Amino acid sequence: MLTGLIILFFWVCLSGLIYIIIRNKKDALSFPQILFFFACKIIAGEVYGYIFKRFYHGDDTWALNNDSILQYKRLLQSPLQFIKDVFSDTPVPENDEFHHFASYLETLEYAIVTKTMAIFNLISQGNYYINVVFFNFLGFFGVYFFYKLLAAQLDKQHLHLAAIVLFLFPPTLFWLSGIRTEGLLLLFTGILLYLFNRWMKEKKIIDALVCLACFGMAVILRNGFAVLLVPPLIAWWVVHAYKTRTSTTFLVTYAICIFAAVAGSFLLPANLNVFSVIALRQHEFMGLQGNTRFALTPLTANPLSFIKVLPESLLNTFIRPFMWEAKGLLQWFSSIENIVVLMLLIASFINIKRSENGLRNVSLAWVLLVTGLCNYIVIGCIVPFPGAIVRYKIIPELFLVGACLIAFLPDNYSRKD
Question: Model-level pTM greater than 0.85?
């Protein structure tokens, strides 16, 4: 009962703080909207935590919370060392009872999430359900900046619909409201895309510096996701700077990237060979244990092996699990989610075909579309576990939904940048 009252108190207070921060911004949400959307994220996060505690033995989300308590104790005992750890070669000290990771970036990712939550613990005292409120306070701004980015592309009469879809689309609401790395990743990605768009127009140095900082955080939290953001951002900048045709620019940019990757597979050492790095990552996943595993052909550094795996990748990320092979509530949920996303993409494609110009001149739609599709393909090539796939692809899925909004709503998809 006391926990519930505390959650209600912080829901109202933090909603008010969000309103104060964004109230003077163009296309800002109203206070009732903030209250409602923030409440939905909190409820989804609480349900997320309960499900994984009750049916999945806590999983990583409760492990993050538990380990944040150790970081909280470290914060109280040695605040300076708590900060210095992040800049050392051991962000998660070995003498602490943390999980061990294969790479420095993964360790740094874990440290950033748990240290952020350690600050929450000054108030929550390690209570998972109260930490959900604070975690979603940060996550709220990730969705908000994404909404602001799309708001400039959509007509005013569609803004309410866009806000509802982006904040309440059930899969993204559920998976991005629990205590996971993806919540912070969306925060930095949303800021990055929003400020990158503003930097191209206004050329403010502060926007460029914040973009670089956010990209650096994205590299730490999901380096593969960050790398896949680079080609669309380059193409976006070229279109804006040189007024080139959007569709042609994106296609040429990706053709150059693919050519460079293939050439690099023959000329570069393994640690710089994109195909070798992806194949190694897949083999690491293949060596893990899981209750459910999709069929996935082992990759090699040869680019042809990726072409062979491509159908399996698309099947595993876009379609599976099939309704008849789904096991448990979350897999049923994932199966329905895949059907809905495919229907949205097909409906958007049909709507685009009816337009004279289609998406040829809408750079943002192309950024979201190609980033989402490329992430789906890479995730499908690497990860054989449906539970991990649905979590890793959730931000790319939000990108695809955003692209569908631009493409499907009338008078938006034919607009020039």
Answer: yes
